[in-house]
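Input chain follows. Return structure tokens only.
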Amino acid sequence: MDSPPAGEVRYPRLFSPLEIKGLPLGNRVLMPPMASNMGVTSDQALAYYRERARGGVGTVIVEGTRVDLFTAPEFARGLARLAGALRAEGAASAIQLVQPPEFDGHAVSVSGKDDRRAAATEEVARIPANFARAARVAQEAGFDGVEIHGAHGFFLNQFFGPARNTRADRYGGSLEARGRVGVESVRAVRAATGLNFLVMYRHTPVDEEAGYELADSLPFARALEAAGLDVLDVSPSAAPGGEHAGLAGALRRAVGVPIIAVGGMGDPAAAEAALRAGRADLVAIGRGLIADAHWAVKVRAGREAEIIECRECDEKCYGNLRQGIPISCVQNPDSGFEYLSSR
């Protein structure tokens, strides 16, 4: 593919700046949270994330991290090192926060299924404060924001679906009650971090197995916005066989905050089209950035033919995750091992 003429950007919307709450984002390309099995404060993780920031993404969201880890001073120091590295490369940064299904060392579930007892009402009521404490640590470490993980059937998301949430307390029953812990978590993080810190939330908009549909997610998104949400991360952003980023577009029409579209954005033309059509404000490139940390730089320069493409083989990304070892990529064996060349 030929490079664009000097001074011309082939995908102008994709590489246009965006400002959210006074935070300037250099472009609309975002690295989403993806588990790496590197440990977010290790030298290996720092080099891995730094290379993606150096590769031209406007924003990096560090992988899902348990809220209980944020209580350790040495962990906070490692976070500061990571946030500083991302800032030095010019990327905005956030870290995804995860509430695990356990309290005080005891495994729980939402409704007493999977051979685990149901979380007590008072335990569920602690979740917003857990997110708020972790967010405050991330803010002090130098991150620009945090993302609450309420998607993909994980613990927080399980409260939202009536097939999984059969609770009879204030966290179960009506749509408002099932969304309460998510809304309260956003409100608590906002109160703990002030106005000049990004509060994001990742939500799966449709889950037939969990018993909810898009019509349920629209009022939930509006409630999150009213609680102080700055960015809604819609994952996945399209229904099977539906319009590209169509689910993200429906939520974007329902709220006034920026929307991240997830899924199928590795094709820059499709990403540009989704942005131009107003279905999203930011696009997440996932496995494409595992395969090639410099995806954004190459696309912007019209060097798409040089991109190391993700073949969706899942061998060294998901495959390594299942084995409990750090991720890499079959197409790019240097991926994940950037720390070796930086020594």
